[in-house]
Amino acid sequence: MPRVKAGPALSDRQSIDVEIARLRDLNVSALRARWRTVFGRMPSPHLPRHLLFRVLAYRLQADHLGDLDAESRRLLDGPGSPEDAGKRAVDPKRLTADVRPGTMLAREWNGRMHRVAVLADGFAWNGKTYSSLSTIASVITGTRWNGPRFFGLRDKPSKGIRA
Prior knowledge:
Blueprint: H1 12-24, H2 28-39, H3 49-65, H4 70-77, H5 82-89, H6 92-95, E1 104-109, E2 112-119, E3 122-125, E4 128-130, H7 133-141, H8 147-150
């Protein structure tokens, strides 16, 4: 019986790098065959070698390390160019609701109501002024929180309301 040397196991990143290197060495017909095993169907005949390679390499990495979240996929699959998707992703109207100075935010936490006043240069809570809602949320809870989410400013709109 032949002896097999067992070395240290490769890390996930190293094994992915090895697999991508193997893909890089394949010709077009071999990449098409690999596509069929990965996706369960033949690729479009007009796809050039570099796109076959890139899609297979992406799928390999996504399967091992995790794919894009649903929100990112929705932005990228939406209408328009990738640049438009980037602009939509950082749209300030999408990030937080419009909070003007004088607005009172309220949140109940552990049976106690917390009220925050929006100022022109920050937020007032318990007699102190803070520069961010996240700081206030962290002080209230004792853990790190996204302030706008904690105070309900980033809640998803109801299904009946569409922007």
